Amino acid sequence: MRKFIKNFFGLLVLTAVIFAAGALFYGTKTVHDLLGENKKLKQAIVTLTQEEQIGYAKVVRQEPRDGNLYSTIRFVETARGNPLETVLEREYEIEGDIVHFDALIVTFSSQAVIDGKERSLYLWRRVYGENQAPSAGFAIEEDGVVPARYRGLLNRLRLPEQKMFWSAVWELANDPEALQQDGIKAIYGNAVYKKLKPGLIYVFKISSSGQVYPETVPDL
Hints:
The protein is of the alpha+beta class. 25% of the residues lie in helices and 40% in strands.
C-alpha cells in the first residue's frame, strides 16, 4: 500500500512538472517563434488567397427622432473564399446616415510563409456614425477573439498556440516596432464611410493593395 501511495504521489509530481513546463513554454514562446518554426501555421497562412468581397451592409430603416435622423443598419460579414456564405450578422443603430466601417489589415511578409508569396488577413473592427468618436463605435469583431471568418483556419495548431496567435495579431497593431521580427509586413486600419440610403446594398470589396471600398447595388 505504501509503495502504491509513493508511486501515485510520484506520478502526481511528474504530471505537475510536465504541466508547469508546458505552461512556461507557451508563456515564453512568441508569435515570432510560431511564424519562424511552425510549419502548420505557415501552411494555414498559405491557404489565404486574394479576396474581393469581405462583407456588405444595408439600411433596415431610417427614421427621425427628437429632431435627429437614425439609421438601423444590418452588417453581414461573409465567409473566406465564399461571399455568398454569412459568418456573422449584426444590426446597429447609428445617429445620422453617414456610417464609417473600420477594418484591420494584416499583411504577412513573403519570408513568413512557405511559398514566398505575401498573404493578408482582413479583420472587421467596428462601425460608428459621423457624430461618434471611433473609440465609441460598435464592435464587429472583439480584440483578441478569433474572427468569425477565420474560425477553423488554425485548427491544426494547439489551442495555446491559436490563442497566442490571435492575441498577438490584435496587440501588434499597437506595437509597430515588433512587426519586422514577427514576420508581419504591416498592420494598419482602413476605415471607409458612406452615406447610406434604404433600398441599396453596400458591398465591401478589397483591392489587391489592401484598400477596402464599397460598391453600391440595388436591394432587389
